C-alpha cells in the first residue's frame, strides 16, 4: 500500500463535532477522506475487511444512539466542474463533500436554476441523491443526471444514471438495495440557464406578494426559502437538531377523510393514486408535543417536527423521546411515523 493505514485512520474519535444533533458518541475508527484514491486505499486495506463501515457527510441527518464499533468514513471530496454546456443548460459535476447550501448559492450566483427551492437544506451534496432531498415543491430527482460511486471493496468507480436510482419520496436505491454497497463520490446536476420558477408552494407565493415581487428571479426564490426556513427551523450551531425528524406520512385517501371528520382543519396534499400526504409536524403538534421539554431534549417551540438537543442530551434520550412521540401519534391518529433521520443504534430502536 502506498500510504500507511494508520496515517489515514484515527481511533476512538468523538463524533460530537460531526453531527448537527450535537450528540457525543465514539467511533472506534474514523477517517476524513478528501480524495477518491484515499477512499479506495482505505477500503482495500486488509484491516478494513472485517470492519462495519458507515459513511458520514455533514452529519445533519443522523442520530447516534450508541458508540459506533466500526469505521466511519467522513467524505470530504470537493470540487465543482461544468462538464457540458448548451445555450439552455449546464451539467455541473460536484464533489460529494461539498456543502449543499453553498452549492445552491453558487448556482444562484451563476444564474443556473433548478435547485433554488432547496436552499438552506443542511448536509452535503453526496447525501442529496441518497435522501432524494426536497422542499417547497421541488425534489432533487428533477435536476439529477447521474452520480459516481465507489464500491465498498474499493475496486472500481461505478456510474448510476437517474433511471437506476429508484427515486421516491425521501428515498432512493442508495437507502435500499445499494445501502452499504457503494459510496457516493461525485454528483452531476442538469441546471437551466432559463429556469421555470416553482412558486406553487403557498408560503413562497404569499412572500412574493408581501414583497411586491411580480417577476421573481431564482435569487428571490432562494432568499425567500432561506427566510422561511430560518423562521421555522433552529440553527444547529445554536440548538442541536437534525431538521425534520420524521417523514411526512402518506396515507390512503379514505384514512385521511376519516381524520378530517374529527379534525376538519387537518392539512393534506393530494399525491395521486388515492393517497394523501399529511404533515408530520401537524400530527405531532396535535398530539401535544410542540415545544415540550423532556430532560435535555424536546421538540422545537416553532416546529413540532424538529427534535432538539437543549444541551447534554444523549442519543438514547432522543431515541426515547422519538419513540414516545411515535406511540402518541399512533394512538391518536392510527398513523405510524417513520424517522427521516438515520438512526445508528445497536438495537435499531425507533
CATH architecture of the largest domain: 2-Layer Sandwich
Give the number of DSSP strands. 20
Biggest sheet strand line-up: 6-7-12-10-11
Strand content: 25-35%
The average pLDDT is 94
Distance between the termini: 41 Å
Largest sheet: 5 strands, antiparallel
Rg over C-alpha atoms, rounded to the nearest angstrom: 21 Å
Q: Looking at the structure, what is the overall shape?
A: globular
Category by helix and strand content: alpha+beta
Keywords:
350 residues; alpha+beta; Uridine Diphospho-n-acetylenolpyruvylglucosamine Reductase, domain 2; Uridine Diphospho-n-acetylenolpyruvylglucosamine Reductase, domain 3; Uridine Diphospho-n-acetylenolpyruvylglucosamine Reductase, domain 1; 3 domains; four-stranded mixed sheet; 29% strand; globular
Report on the architecture of this protein.
The protein folds into 3 domains: 5-75, Uridine Diphospho-n-acetylenolpyruvylglucosamine Reductase, domain 2 (2-Layer Sandwich), CATH 3.30.43; 80-192, Uridine Diphospho-n-acetylenolpyruvylglucosamine Reductase, domain 3; 240-344, Alpha-Beta Complex (Uridine Diphospho-n-acetylenolpyruvylglucosamine Reductase, domain 1), CATH 3.90.78. Helices cover 25% and strands 29% of the residues. It is α+β, with helices and mostly antiparallel strands. Helix 5 (202-210) packs across helix 6. Strand 15 (269-272) and strand 16 form a beta hairpin. The radius of gyration is 21 Å and the shape is globular. A 5-stranded antiparallel beta sheet has the order 6-7-12-10-11. A 4-stranded mixed beta sheet has the order 1-2-5-3. The chain has a 4-stranded antiparallel beta sheet with strand order 13-19-18-17.
Amino acid at each position: 500500500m502506498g500510504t500507511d493505514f494508520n496515517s489515514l485512520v484515527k481511533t476512538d474519535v468523538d463524533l460530537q463535532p460531526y453531527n448537527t444533533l450535537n450528540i457525543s458518541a465514539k467511533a472506534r475508527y474514523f477517517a476524513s477522506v478528501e480524495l477518491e484514491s484515499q477512499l479506495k486505499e482505505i477500503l482495500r486495506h486488509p484491516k478494513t475487511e472485517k470492519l462495519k463501515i458507515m459513511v458520514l457527510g455533514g452529519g445533519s441527518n443522523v442520530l447516534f444512539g450508541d458508540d459506533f464499533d466500526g469505521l466511519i468514513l467522513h467524505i470530504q471530496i470537493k470540487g465543482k466542474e461544468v462538464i457540458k454546456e448548451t445555450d439552455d443548460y449546464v451539467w455541473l459535476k460536484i464533489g460529494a463533500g461539498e456543502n449543499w447550501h453553498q452549492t445552491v448559492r453558487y448556482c444562484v450566483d451563476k444564474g443556473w436554476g433548478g435547485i433554488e427551492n432547496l436552499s438552506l437544506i443542511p448536509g452535503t451534496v453526496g447525501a442529496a441523491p441518497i435522501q432524494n432531498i426536497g422542499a417547497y415543491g421541488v425534489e432533487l430527482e428533477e435536476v439529477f443526471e447521474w452520480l459516481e460511486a465507489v464500491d465498498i471493496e474499493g475496486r472500481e468507480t461505478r456510474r448510476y444514471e437517474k433511471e437506476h436510482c429508484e427515486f421516491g419520496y425521501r428515498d432512493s436505491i442508495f437507502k435500499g438495495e445499494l445501502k452499504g454497497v457503494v459510496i457516493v463520490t461525485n454528483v452531476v446536476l442538469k441546471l437551466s440557464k432559463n429556469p421555470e420558477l416553482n412558486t406553487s408552494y403557498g408560503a413562497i407565493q404569499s412572500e412574493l406578494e408581501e414583497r411586491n415581487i411580480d417577476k421573481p428571479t431564482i435569487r428571490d426564490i432562494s432568499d425567500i426559502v432561506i427566510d422561511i426556513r430560518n423562521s421555522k427551523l433552529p440553527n444547529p450551531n445554536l440548538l442541536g437538531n437534525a431538521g425534520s425528524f420524521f417523514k411526512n406520512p402518506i396515507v390512503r385517501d379514505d384514512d385521511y377523510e376519516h381524520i378530517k371528520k374529527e379534525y376538519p382543519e387537518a392539512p393534506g396534499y393530494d399525491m395521486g393514486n388515492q393517497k394523501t400526504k399529511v404533515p408530520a409536524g401537524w400530527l405531532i403538534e396535535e398530539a401535544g408535543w410542540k415545544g415540550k421539554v423532556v430532560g435535555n431534549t424536546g421538540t422545537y417551540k416553532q416546529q413540532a417536527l424538529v427534535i432538539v438537543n437543549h444541551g447534554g442530551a444523549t442519543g438514547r434520550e432522543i431515541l426515547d423521546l422519538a419513540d414516545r412521540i411515535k406511540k402518541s401519534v399512533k394512538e391518536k391518529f392510527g398513523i405510524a411515523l417513520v424517522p427521516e433521520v438515520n438512526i445508528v443504534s445497536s438495537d435499531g430502536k425507533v
